[in-house]
Amino acid sequence: MKVVHTIEDLRDQLRGQLRAAFVPTMGNLHAAHLSLMRLAHQHGDPVVASIFVNRLQFGPNEDFDRYPRTLAEDIEKLERERDVYVLFAPDEREMYPEPQNFRIRPGDALGNILEGEFRPDFFMGVSTVVLKLFSCVQPRVAVFGKKDYQQLMVVRAMCRQFQLPVEILAHETVRDPDGLALSSRNRFLSAAERAEAPNLYGQLQQVRDAVRAGRDDWAGVEAQAMQTLRNRGWDPDYVSVRRQRDLQPPTLQEIHEREPLVVLTAARLGSTRLIDNLEF
User: Is residue 33 among the annotated active site residues?
Assistant: First the structure.
């Protein structure tokens, strides 16, 4: 595997390659990231990964400074996996050599709800850095995980509206045996918090089961899940049932007609904010 740190070196490595498959990450790689690499390997050649902790998508009081940076360990994991041809690991000066005055802001219908409501500049930061990375790599396909469900939809919408020739592939959420979605932030959980953390997914399952059983007051179902989380020591931002196709609230008729839905949540446990979702 080649490891490059500049855009010029990256483009030299990829010159003439028309079928690249790309997996952008912020590093601290775990089993879920590696499964993204394997999916990319099935759909393109060569496979390109990136590691870059993007300051633009962090709010002023968020965890940018303490976000885990483990480049040496990440390189070892990717080399053992053997699916990645080149790793692009730029620093901030390489990605943002001057103030990033041109930024991509998703529209209100998708960008300002759920995560966008609680993290106002998050999707601006994600969209801007993904567009820059796509410009650097020029992949044919790119792979994103479903755990970041709204992010996946924002990236797909950006590619569609800007006519980018990149197919976005979605990988199913990878979970520990107890149901907790794998995340780089899980390492911040104490032992007691780690034991409690799977209950976030448990609440998603209960919401799904209630809607499937015929409960049509899903606002009440959502509120009940929020209160259950609070009672267990969580500080939830939202638990919300939405349509899969656009993340808008479903109508009663759509629920009765079995519209594909997804329930999404974000909640803090101690100092760690976790997100998760469940399609049904």
Answer: yes
